[in-house]
Design goal:
A two-stranded parallel sheet has the order 1-2. α1 runs parallel beside α3. The N terminus is likely disordered. Helices cover 59% and strands 2% of the residues. With 258 residues, the chain is mainly alpha-helical. It is elongated and about 65 Å long.
């Protein structure tokens, strides 16, 4: 039986977009929302889209070409999947950027985990913020941080975990102190980190200021947060919604484990 999502929807680009959009939705639902193992998500999705309703050879070849592209992205570029599929809004321009990165870069040049080789000269004190988020939840939080451009360099789940655990090998530089402070305030508000996060981040020296490049102090976090709350903007709403969604995910996981 032909799968409904694979009825002819136009040209090759349209069909690829339909596939990627469905894969993005399924990723958020199963991997992020239900904590499904990523490898099983990939296997099940590809197996479920093996056939199409094309009757002619050209249509079948087009479908298989698109499936090959999708398979390559899912199996070889998990970093791009985390970066692009975590966002609810998967528009055609997002597909273009995803394909550009897939075709022109390697995984090592995208988001990377923290280096395995220790660098004692830049190791920071291990001052944990008390986070209990899993990798899927951290991936969503990291995507939010990247969308809001909180730091001058992209972060992923591994980097964010090190940040929250106070074990970064080198500090991150803030791109917007107000949004950074608001981001941690929302995490604290939903009890995803400890209430004394400002002092812990200061002691760890985890984040450098956007202007002078020096480690932010707890007073600077407080001042930036006050300014953010007195001058709200649309990006703060995006951060609030993202952190709220992660909080709801943790509550569902807690309920499921009872």
């Amino acid at each position: 039986m032909a799968n409904k999502p694979h009825k002819s929807v136009g040209n090759e680009r349209d069909e690829l977009f339909a596939l990627l959009k469905e894969a993005s939705f399924t990723y958020r639902k199963e991997v992020i929302g239900e904590s499904k193992l990523y490898e099983l998500y990939v296997e099940d999705f590809l197996n479920g889209h093996y056939y199409s309703d094309h009757r002619d050879a050209a249509g079948k070849n087009r479908h298989w070409k698109n499936i090959g592209i999708l398979r390559g992205i899912l199996t070889k570029r998990k970093d791009l999947v985390e970066q692009f599929f975590s966002n609810i809004l998967f528009a055609p321009n997002r597909m273009d950027e995803l394909l550009r990165l897939f075709n022109t870069t390697k995984a090592s040049s995208g988001l990377k985990e923290e280096p395995d080789k220790p660098r004692p000269e830049t190791n920071l004190p291990a001052l944990s913020l008390g986070s209990f988020l899993n990798d899927n939840q951290l991936s969503l939080i990291a995507h939010c941080a990247n969308e809001a451009q909180l730091f001058t360099t992209p972060v992923n789940a591994g980097i964010l975990r090190s940040l929250l655990e106070g074990t970064l090998h080198q500090p991150l530089k803030s791109a917007n102190n107000r949004l950074v402070a608001f981001f941690f305030d929302r995490l604290c508000h939903h009890r995803l980190i400890l209430g004394r996060w400002e002092h812990l981040l200061e002691q760890a020296g985890s984040i450098l200021g956007s202007r002078d490049g020096r480690p932010l102090k707890h007073g600077q976090y407080s001042s930036a947060l006050s300014l953010a709350k007195s001058n709200p903007n649309s990006m703060q709403e995006v951060i609030s919604q993202c952190v709220q969604a992660v909080r709801e995910m943790t509550e569902r996981n807690t309920t499921d484990n009872k």
